[in-house]
Amino acid sequence: MDADKQRRIAQKIENNIDLIDKIISTFKLNINPKLMSNILREDNYIKNFEQITDLYRRNKSSKELFMKTILKNRLKQEEATDFLYSREEVAIILSYDYKVGPPREKFYDQVALKYKRYKNETFGGIYVKPTYPLGVNFDFFITNPEIEKYGLTPYKSGSNKLQSNRIILQNSHNQTINKLIENSYHSNEVSLPNPLLDLYIIADLAKRIVTSDYDFPVYNFSNFDVGNILPSLNKYIFSKL
Amino acid sequence: MKKSTDLSEYEYSEKLKIKAKLEKDTSKKIDGKSLKSFDKINKYMKSINYFFSRGIINAHLDFEPIAQKIANKKSFYIISGRNPSGSLHLGHLALFKLLLEFQKLGANIIIPFTNDESYIDGKTKDFETGKNIAMQTIPFLAALGFNPNKTKVLIHTDYIDLYRIAMYFGNFININQLNSLFGQESTNTPSKIFYRGALQLASILMLQLKEFGGKQNVLVPVSLDQHPYILLARDVAKKSNLIPPSEIVIPFLLGNKNPLEKMSSSIEGSAIRITDSPDKIRKLINQSYTGSLSTLDGHKLYGAIPEICPVFQILRYLHEDDDYISNLQSEYREGLLLTSELKSIVTKFLIRMTTDLQSKAEEFDKKYIEMFLLKTLISSK
Hints:
The complex is a heterodimer of chains A (241) and B (381). With 241 residues, chain A is mainly alpha-helical. Chain A has 12 helices and 2 strands; from the N terminus they run ααααααβαβααααα. A two-stranded parallel sheet of chain A has the order 1-2. Chain B has 381 residues and is an alpha/beta fold. Chain B is built from 17 helices and 7 strands. A 7-stranded mixed β-sheet of chain B has the order 1-2-7-6-3-4-5, sandwiched between helices. The longest helix of chain B has 31 residues, at 2-32. The chains are: A mainly alpha (241), B alpha/beta (381).
């Protein structure tokens, strides 16, 4: 990698860290972020990684579980690295009591749980609803059943190369966001992807934190004000970051 | 009283068996013929029209590209043939209404009248009879609101270019394929072989010739018994570098006297024709099989089974108001809506609709009717 590219990546990382710090302080979140590069150097992690790699090599079912966490189009790539990402993921999990993630990560958790039980420990997984791309109509979900099933990874803006169908903080302009909202599929059917409802809830949760409204929120999936999404995002999220 | 309750219980269980048989027949055929359930697509498209919201389409093959066309407001072709061996009945009308809904979504419609098929299968005495039935049908297409610029009718024996194209496409398959798909009885004369092995698939695949815009997605709505034609057309499309046609499967409208039979002109009392008089409609509905029990007490106790009720299914296929149909269905299922009330509703609905269609159909002049005839000359191949 040339020095210029390395400098650009370092700058981007720094900007992202600044943004995360700002989100945490603005919304008074009780979160202690850690850089993966630092975690990888922790003694506890290194020990867990070695043990989980050993378990993976000895136990065929671990590989089968890892395979279930991977989208079909990524399977070859993961197999080429002998599921390094999955082993790293489980090694991190082993240091904690709970993990929050998308539903398909339950398979990582099952490997972790196996190991925790062996050590007479336990572990809990909390699975959040998948998020879905904005700016696409129903045909996208019909022709992309994997995205319909698993959604996009919430914290990866480039998940499935759909970065132009997501709102990237400090990057997406109002005009673009408006267009994405206008062109998004909106359904009254609770079992179908509803990216606008996700966005509405994100904006509403931000509003509740900013206005210290801690009543338990109840959302109507079929009847919410789409026109209010962008003004709320602007007022309670974008303008504060 | 106990005796009557026992009888009702027996009658209800017999009707449930009919429902189970109807569902099993359909799902078994879908599982065994590489078709996919339409349930998921129905969920996405349910707000578009009542055929989706009521789940009337029950299976598909490659509908995804058509969904893309609809979502992006792009035009596409639908081809849906009719065997002109008898007068138009409500089953045909339901299919035409489906086509009309697709036309609103951007479809160009081609309706081949297979008067050659009617003749070779012994359903008409000559080609002319089928042609006359076809010509009598066109005013009803106009009355239903089909756009003549986007709806074209072809009468097989008058569209000679088709036979040349058929000769070309028929060369991609062999007699063993035909026999295994249709059985020997359906291919026991040279005419039947040519029709099933060449003409049918040619009328589907010709829409990808340059005269119709070249290679493109074509949707074919069929009933399950026509699935072999689509399999054959898809096979030949692949072999001749065309796009395999997409398929949706629509269950038949139930026969008036027997829910396990399709509505058919050739079964006495089974079909209600669009040209039937109000008195005839009243009589046919009164004599119809229903999804409810024969005693009032039984009906109120057990409720009805709308899925096997030809009278209710007429409304489900033809009435456009979703909320109205949904309420009627619930009331009928719960036994709150009596059979006599349902029959009265359906009779009035049908008399109003057929009278309206009949009078509208008479209004169109010859010039307007001729606009529906396909006149595209094919020079390809």
